[in-house]
Amino acid sequence: MCGIVGYIGNRQAYPILIKGLHRLEYRGYDSAGIALIDHDHLKVYKTKGKVSELELFAQQKDITGTIGIAHTRWATHGEPTQTNAHPHFSQTEEIAIIHNGIIENYSVLKEGLIKEGYTFQSQTDTEVLVQLIEYMKKSNGTDLPTAVQLALNEVVGAYAIAVLERNNPDMIVAARKGSPLVIGIGEDEYFIGSDATPIIEFTDQVTYIGDEEIVTIQRNKPLRIRTIGNIDKTPEIQKLEMTLNQLEKGGYPHFMLKEIFEQPQTLSDCMRGRVNVDSDNITLAGFIDNKEKFLKAKRIIITACGTSWHAAQIGMYAIEEYARIPVEVEYSSEFRYRKPVINKDDIVIAISQSGETADTLAAIELAKQQEAFIFGICNVVGSSIPRKTHSGCYTHVGPEIGVASTKAFTAQVTVLTMLAILIGKEKGTISHDEYLRLIRELSLIPDKVSEILQKSDQMIAELSKSFTYASNCIYLGRGYNFPVALEGALKLKEISYIHAEGYPAAEMKHGAIALISNEMPVVVIATQSDTYEKVTSNIQEIKARKGRIISVVTEGDTQVRDLSTFCIEVPKTEPCLTPLLSVIPLQLLAYHIAVVKGCDVDQPRNLAKSVTVE
Ligand code: G6P
C-alpha cells in the first residue's frame, strides 16, 4: 500500500518520478504528490486522485529540479484529500517526507509535539513523523540522517520513508521497517522505489534496504547504510532479472487480460527445470535442501491472505491426498493474533505474490519465534518474505500489475502441487505410476490453458453481457474446485463490484439456496470427478428454483450442459490439476463483466495490490 519513488542525479527528476508513480500506482491511487528541491526552494505539489490528476495539475507549473521524492497513496489515516496527500512538510517547511506504512503510536507522539508548539495540517500519521524529525534535528543540533535515526527510535509501526531537506539539495535520507524499499544505483545517480518497477528502465543494479536500516543517498557519493541502532552496513548490490517489457501492456487493453493470457507461458516458466518429463522427475531446490524436515513433518500450516489463501486451500487438498500430512490453512491476519499451537516439527508455508503482505510477514515472525521451519512461496524476487523464510520457492511469473491476481494464483497452485507430489514420492505415499502420470499431466497444463483461452474468451465476452444486471452471484464447487469457487467469486467482487459468494456445492442447501431465483446467476464448476454426480444433483436443485446456471465442465460433457444457460468446457486432466484449468473461465468471466460494466479493471476502487498495512 502506497508507492514511494525518489531520484537524485543529473537529470530532471520530475519525468522520472511521474513515470515511477505510474508504475507503482497498483499500490494505491487515492492521491499522489511530489517534492523537489529547485534553487534553494523545497516545493511540494499534490492532488487528490490518481497520478494522472497530478500530471494534469503539474502541466500548469514549471517544475524543475534534479532531486525529488514522490508518492501514490492508499489512505489509512485520514480521508483521501489533497491535505492528507503526501509529501508532508514539517512545521517550518524545511523538511518533506513520503511514507508507506503506519505509525502506530502517532497519537502519543503528536500530543508530545503539540506540547512543544507544533501544529498539524493533516490527519495523517506521516505528518507526525516529519515533525518529529524536525524536532529531533533542532533539539539535538544534528544532521538530517541522525535526526531521522533519532525519530525512528521513537516510532512503533511500519514504514518506508524518504526525506528531503531544503538546505540539503544533494541528499535524500530513506529508511524502512516492514514496508519495502529498494535503491537503484546508476552511473552518477540513484533511484528509490517501493519495488524495482520504477527503477528497471534506468539501471539493473539495486540494493534492497533491510528492516530498521537508514540509507543516506548523496549525489556522487557512495550509499551509506546504518541501522537505527547505529551499526554501519555494507550495501549488497544485486542484478535485477526483470525486463521493461514485462511492465508494459503489450497490446492488451488491461494488465489483467494480459496476465490471464500470459498463463500458458507463466505456468511453463514456473515448471521450467522443475517438472522434467524426459527424466520423469520433479525437482524443487527448496525441498531438496530441506527434505528431512518435510519427510518428518507432523503437520503443515499454510498461511496467506486473499487469492494466495485460496491457492493454499488447494494446496491443502493436494498435500493431504498425496503426502498424507495433515494441513491447516490459516488467514495470516487471524493466525498472528490468536495463540496458535505451533510445534518445532511443524512446517509453516507462507504464500504471497508480493512477498510484502504485512499480516503474512507477522505470521512468519510468530512461527519463527516458535521455532517452526518456514517455507515461502512468493513471486517478487528479493521481497521481504523470501528474505525472512528459511527456504522456499519462487513462482517466477514476472511482475503482476493488475490488482486482481490471476497468473500468480495458478503458479502458486502449481508450486503447491509439485511440492505435494514430490513429498508423496519421497515418502512413498504415492505409487511410482501415479507419480509419472501426474508429472506428465502437469507438463500438459500450459497447452490446455492455452486451448481454453483460445476457445472461450470470445464466448465469455459475449455471455458476460447478460450478467451485468446482477447484483449478486453464487459460485459453487466441490473438492479441488471449492477453493476455485471462492477465487472466482473474489475476482468478480474485486473488479465488477457484484456481490459474490463461493460455497461448497453441497453446503448450498444449508442456507444459500434461499437466495436462488431467476435473478440469481449461479456459476457451478462441474468438471469430471468423484463428486460429479452429486454436483449435478445440486445443479438440478438450482434449476428447479429457476436459477441461471453458468457451468464449467469437462470437454464432451452433455449432462450438465443440458441443465445450463451457458456452459464452458475445459480439457480433461487429473482432479488435483483441474483448478489450473477451471479457474481460467472464471478469471475471464470476472474480467469481461467488469469491462462491460465500465469498471476500472486494473485499479478497482478501494483496493491495493500490495497490502503492507494490517
Ligand atoms: C491484496 C491483493 C490480492 C492478494 C492479497 C494477498 O488483497 O489485492 O490480489 O491476493 O493482497 O497478497 P499477497 O501479495 O500476499 O499474495
Task: Provide tags for this entry.
single chain; 614 residues; alpha/beta; eight-stranded antiparallel beta sheet; binds 6-O-phosphono-alpha-D-glucopyranose
What would you say about this model in short?
The protein has 614 residues and is an alpha/beta fold. The protein has 19 helices and 27 strands. The chain is globular, with a radius of gyration of 25 Å.
List the helices and strands and how they pair.
Layout (H helix, E strand, L loop, with lengths): L2 E6 L4 H12 L6 E8 L2 E8 L2 H9 L7 E7 L14 E2 L5 E9 L2 H10 L9 H16 L3 H10 L3 E9 L5 E7 L4 E4 L4 E4 L11 E4 L4 E6 L5 E4 L4 E2 L4 E2 L15 H7 L1 H9 L3 E2 L4 E2 L2 H4 L2 H6 L2 E6 L1 H18 L3 E5 H4 L10 E7 L5 H12 L3 E6 L5 H5 L2 E4 L12 H21 L4 H33 L7 E6 L3 H16 L2 E6 L16 E6 L5 H13 L3 E7 L4 H5 L2 E5 L7 H19 L18
Parallel strand pairs: 18-19, 18-20, 20-21, 21-22, 23-24, 23-25, 25-26, 26-27
Antiparallel strand pairs: 1-4, 1-10, 2-3, 2-4, 5-6, 6-7, 7-8, 8-12, 9-10, 9-11, 11-15, 12-13, 13-14, 16-17
Helix pairs in contact: 3-4, 4-5, 7-14, 7-15, 10-14, 10-16, 14-15, 15-19, 16-19
The site of 6-O-phosphono-alpha-D-glucopyranose (G6P) has 14 residues, from helix 10.
What features would you describe in this structure?
By secondary structure, this protein is an alpha/beta fold. 37% of the residues lie in helices and 23% in strands. The protein is built from 19 helices and 27 strands. It has an eight-stranded antiparallel β-sheet with strand order 3-2-4-1-10-9-11-15, with helices on one face. β5 and β6 (95-103) form a beta hairpin. The longest helix has 33 residues, at 432-464. The radius of gyration is 25 Å and the shape is globular. The model has no long low-confidence stretch (mean pLDDT 94). The structure holds 6-O-phosphono-alpha-D-glucopyranose (G6P). The site of 6-O-phosphono-alpha-D-glucopyranose has 14 residues, from α10.
